[in-house]
Amino acid sequence: MTFSFSLRRIVPILLLLFTRYFCFFDGSDGRMLYGSKHHIFPLQTFRPYNIAHRGSNGEFPEETEGAYLRAIEEGADFIETDILSSKDGALICFHDVILDLVTDVADHKEFANYKRTYEVQGFTITGWFIVDFTLEELRTLRVKQRYLFREQQYNGIYPILTFEEFIEIALNAKRTVGIYPEIKNPVFINQQVKWEDGRKYEDVFIDTLLKYGYKGSYKSKSWLKMPIFIQSFAPISLIYASKLIDSPKVFLIDDIDMPTQDTNQTYWEITSDEYLKFIKAYVVGIGPWKDTINPVKDNYLCPPTDLVKRAHAHGLEVHPYTYRNENHFLHWNFSQDPYAEYSYWIEKIKVDGLFTDFTGSFHHYQEWTSGSHITK
Ligand SMILES: *[C@@H]1O[C@H](CO)[C@@H](O)[C@H](O)[C@H]1NC(C)=O
Ligand SMILES: *[C@@H]1O[C@H](CO)[C@@H](O)[C@H](O)[C@H]1NC(C)=O
């Protein structure tokens, strides 16, 4: 009698505890303190990372809330963004130094006289530069799709995001979603924007990450809780950042005819064994333009270079960019099939992650080919 009595009383209590436990862990009670939030689904680390290039920008205007939420829904491991600064020093998510191509700035008569010409990394550019707008002014603009052959119905809806809003999108996701922010155009930004106390763009960038609790070396406990890769084409910025934060960094590598934007080094210098040996003290990987790893002629692949093998020999990961579904981005060897392209790069070239405009396609490819004990 005592046994059944206590069981009847204990079972509901256990059930209650059980449900509360899971309510807590799935975050359904709303926002919690960042860093104390535990996730049911950890970051997957057993297969190459799905890095959502500017969000799921194949479907939504790039670097907007819509693009990032869609990427998270579609299975992104990391959401990727480019950080630039407004005139008044606010860090925002935007790829180009000018607003012309992916916003409605041309329709805003009040900004007609903001058009300028600047020298940016050896190129003379004319347009509406982000560094001439305050954050408040930038907020009045709306983002649009870069390519006319992509979905246009979300044009004019989304404002430009701040760096902090971007971080909060990742931290509010129902599973662990990493961030992959770029220290973008640091030479130009530091020339044009000044912060108090002589702080540099890189200081403000890293302070933003520290404020949210990003820390820890690659695959450490704190990294797995809040995964991040800090990326840049500028080696001086990465080396500087390594003194401020121990989070993993990735050195981006441009096309073979583009010198580095701060040290003016050639592609050949920065992909030499000597340089990889030097830079691996500061970064965990490289992020090359994919056609430099595997050169292309007449839209056909040539034999691949040994860059991935050499980087791996130095213990560096390789995360190339950018993978896009559309026919005219696919080299003939792939028979107009984006899955064939993923298969080539994962199985044959053996990359450790890749930047894609179509998070969902890459996620499906991985679900079909790499087992089912997955996150989503
Ligand atoms: C960068 O290096 C090239 C030679 O490799 C040189 O012609 C050019 O003037 C240099 N640019 C700057 C800004 O130093
Ligand atoms: C791509 O296709 C061309 C033409 O058939 C062929 O010569 C080349 O070897 C292929 N490249 C790779 C990497 O398979």
UniProtKB/TrEMBL annotation:
Segments spanning the bilayer are: none
Q: What is its EC number?
A: 3.1.4.46
Q: Where is the GP-PDE domain?
A: 48-366
Q: One GO molecular function term?
A: glycerophosphodiester phosphodiesterase activity
- Which reaction does this enzyme catalyse, per its entry? a sn-glycero-3-phosphodiester + H2O = an alcohol + sn-glycerol 3-phosphate + H(+)
Q: Which GO terms describe its biological process?
A: glycerol metabolic process; lipid metabolic process
InterPro entries in UniProt: GP_PDE_dom (IPR030395), PLC-like_Pdiesterase_TIM-brl (IPR017946)
Q: Does the keyword ATP-binding apply?
A: no
Q: Which domain of life is it from?
A: Eukaryota
Record has Signal as a keyword: yes
Q: Which family does it belong to?
A: Belongs to the glycerophosphoryl diester phosphodiesterase family.
Name assigned to this protein? glycerophosphodiester phosphodiesterase
